[in-house]
Amino acid sequence: MKKKDPFVLRHLANIQPELWWLDSDPLEPAPHAALIGDVGADLCIVGAGYTGLWTALLAKEREPSRKVVVIEQYETGAGASGRNGGFCSASLTHGFSNGMHRFAEEMPVIERLGRENLNEIEETIRRYDIVCDWERTGELRVAVAAWQLRAMEKEAKLRNEMGDNVQVLSREEVQARVHSPLYQGGLFDPDGTALVDPARLVWGLERACLKLGVTIYENSKVEWLEDVDDAVRIHTPYGAVTAARVALATNVWASLVRSARKYVVPVYDFQLVTEPLSPEQLESIGWKGREGVADAGNQFHYYRLTKDHSILWGGYDTIYNFRGKVRREYEFNAETYATLADHFLKTFPQLAGIKFTHAWGGAIDTCTRFSPFWGTSSGGKVAYVLGYTGLGVASTRFGASAMLDLLDDLDTERTRLTMVRKKPMPFPPEPFKWLFISLTQRAIRHADEHEGRRNLWLKLMDLFGLGFDS
Length: 470
Known about the structure:
By secondary structure, this protein is an alpha/beta fold. The protein is built from 13 helices and 18 strands. Strands 1, 2, 8, 9, 10, 11, 17 and 18 form an eight-stranded mixed β-sheet that branches. An eight-stranded mixed β-sheet has the order 5-6-4-13-14-15-12-16. A two-stranded antiparallel ribbon has the order 3-7.
């Protein structure tokens, strides 16, 4: 570990390697039994995170008589769905600029579908009475350098022409919302982002699925898929499900469709949470609107207030482990926590002395276009969606909708999108994958330090539609 400022490290003295969301009056439903023996289903879903639960819920809403079974290798929401920052964004393309770079002609439709998707999530929460601290606060993206503000002005013009309603803020206007000496301006989207307790959202979706008759099995790792005539047999250690259709919602875990594995790599993202702010500390930073905040660098931080006025602070560092290993021990990273704490104190020097209480990390599935992609196998009996790149709290519902469309062989506005029909460029094999990711991350840091200018490596990656986000 590189030597860190002792003043910064003192703020980390009280951290516990625990999820803040699980330490705040959780509403977790009772556990489910493991799958033992053989069962049949119309639809079997592998994975009980957001994608899997949305798929189950939407499938039952579309066709209530459909028998739906969900199989989870750990427990519901054990992966990224229960450990993210709780930013529920309308963007389906990991930000507008990324979408414009890859799907420019379709962006008016994609933006509209994204807003409709977010509204439908809000309606689902209301309809099923899901208690998840939903707040439609909007998002404030802040510029900490002049070049970032210039890019925001161009983005705002394009987005507003497509039906969004975003506003560029001057230094004075952004400081009036949140006080930080680093902010030079910002872009405010008043209704394109909601904040949510991610664990309570996943548990609420779980309850809604159970209410509609979905069967969930936990602690049942799927080992392999077998084609059997007009169905697929899903094998677990103690049993199997024979289903007409299979939806794979496995996120960072190795896909059961081997040909999909080359498109995804897992990277680790980390978060800190402070102790609750006092009224005086809250007054010192403003933040009356409780907006979700992110800075506009390629390597960016995201941060928000929780229900008890703590600050969740995450992002910036993302770590790829050689050969894409996903292990529990990777979820705690002392050096990254020190970096995050240092950046926090530079953003909010008026909060010097505050203690961080919780720290954790989690794996994100990313692809070379930084946004989800879809595919099918076994003659259309199996479908999957992968590659959310950390912006999946809302887009998983859209991902589930499109995956169901593919399984039901429906021609819809979703399935006609290029982003649904075509896959990203695959990653190269190791050790070239590790080298490619390392070089790209280094180039991204260089761009942030040089007014956003992209070097030859990034220009080459742009040419081939490749790259790697923060």
